[in-house]
Design a protein that fits this description.
With about 160 residues, this protein is an alpha/beta fold. Helix content is about 45%, strand content about 20%.
């Protein structure tokens, strides 16, 4: 898929990581590996992309990332608490220095008044600090929500890298 905006963003992430000699990991739910696909579309990404986890089900979030059943039950899969746990799990289960996580309701179904279609929770973490989280509500169809989520996840990672100098 040729998407100049995503390619430019992924290239910037790669440049920042490579300049530090760092690697990243991604834990994805609603984006289904789109973050990993975006960064690995960049030539040379093997120098800075360590691995990706596509954890669409709660069971996958638990077994691959160590998200607790209690957190999933208490907060739901679409929550900042679970996004933080996913990011932390990706970092703990990889050789990465930073990790990001994305979990949300891409639609067209699955939303509720408390968690509407377009609601996406993000987590970012560096090895030396606590997780950062954020929730956004995006407009558009399923593809648009997922694409905006990839952009926001990578933009948030750039912000984390800027603060981790």
């Amino acid at each position: 898929m040729n998407d100049p905006e995503l390619d430019a963003l992924a290239s910037r992430v790669g440049q920042q990581l490579a300049a530090r000699g760092w690697m990243m990991a991604a834990a994805e739910s609603c984006t289904g590996g789109w973050v990993a696909q975006t960064v690995t579309a960049i030539a040379g990404s093997s120098a800075w992309f360590e691995r990706g986890f596509v954890t669409y089900s709660n069971a996958a979030k638990e077994s691959l990332l160590g998200v607790t059943a209690a957190a999933l039950e208490r907060h739901g899969a679409v929550s900042e608490e679970v996004a933080a746990a996913m990011a932390g799990g990706a970092l703990a289960n990889s050789r990465a220095h930073v990790a990001l996580a994305v979990t949300g309701v891409a639609g067209p179904g699955g939303g509720s008044p408390a968690k509407p279609v377009g609601m996406v929770c993000f987590g970012w973490i560096a090895a030396a600090g606590p997780a950062r989280t954020e929730t956004r509500i995006f407009d558009g169809d399923r593809t648009a929500v997922r694409r905006q989520s990839v952009i926001h996840a990578l933009t948030g990672l750039l912000a984390l890298l800027a603060d981790s100098r």
